[in-house]
Amino acid sequence: MLTSNTRVSTKAEPPLPAVDDGLYAFFFDVDGTLAEIRSEPDAVTIPAAVRDNLQALSTACNGALALVSGRPIQQLDKLTEPLKLPMAGVHGAELRDGDGNLQCVTLPAEVAVPLQQMLDKGMASMPGTLLEGKGMAFALHYRQAMSFQQQVLELAQAAVAQFPQLTLQPGKCVVEIKPQGKDKGAAINTFMQTPPFAGRIPVFIGDDLTDEQGFLAVNAMNGISVKVGEGSGHAQYHLKQVADVHHWLEQLLLQTRVEKGINL
After folding, report:
1. Between 149-162 and 109-124, two packed helices, what is the crossing angle to 10 degrees?
2. In Å, what is the CA distance from 3 to each residue of 24, 213, 215, 220?
3. Looking at the predicted structure, is the pLDDT value of residue 10 above 70?
4. What is the 3 state secondary structure string of 51-116?
5. Which ranges of 148-211 does DSSP label H, i.e. alpha helix?
6. 29 catalytic, yes or no?
7. 82-91, 113-122, 164-173: which range is least confident on average?
8. What predicted TM-score, i.e. pTM, was given to this entire model?
9. Of residues 20, 21, 29, 120, which has the active-site annotation?
10. Shortest CA distance to 193 belongs to which of 2, 25, 18?
């Protein structure tokens, strides 16, 4: 049995769980999982065929499918339109449940204003970096300015030291500053306590350090955790790249059509 402290190999490809028996709930990261990572966050897209497959899977599992991302929900809706899925945005600081109810964490003005000013000034001194504001969180990107990696980290550390209600979340060529207590594992746990997710076995696919807490949460519930890309972590299974996630999703739906005769 897996526990929250289990660290396992990610060599095996994930199984294809039964979709239509109400047994499983599905959670997907977006960047690096459903969509290829781009140099600019605004350049990211989810292919139309993948959006169609997400809709088909959501229908087959009676809505027990959610996106769990560092992006704000507003961005996720644009990436997945015309779908209207349950979502956890900004690592769970925003959460829209299966009934469409939205919960958001906000930063008080006495934190948000000086933090914005501090980050604006610091990032402006590092050409090629990008500061992405998310309302209650900030992403400090350095993908196009790798020489500033250490300086970006130090700026983020200084911000968190000044505002202890915030915490750091490192990722691929980015450092995020977000509210304490909000991560993808906590978001998945919240979903799993409410319909239509409650009582099911969670399946979570992600690619980054930001997804490790999600893997731990899923492992603790004896679910299926899948890492996309290089490196081992807390996930049980492994897919090499985004294209393999798309193929896994296609095979999952094909299995459902063949074995259960569902018209998806």
Report:
1. 160
2. 19, 13, 11, 5
3. no
4. HHHHHHHHHHCCCCEEEECCCCHHHHHHHHCCCCCCEEEHHHCEEECCCCCEEECCCCHHHHHHHH
5. 149-162, 184-191
6. yes
7. 164-173
8. 0.84
9. 29
10. 25
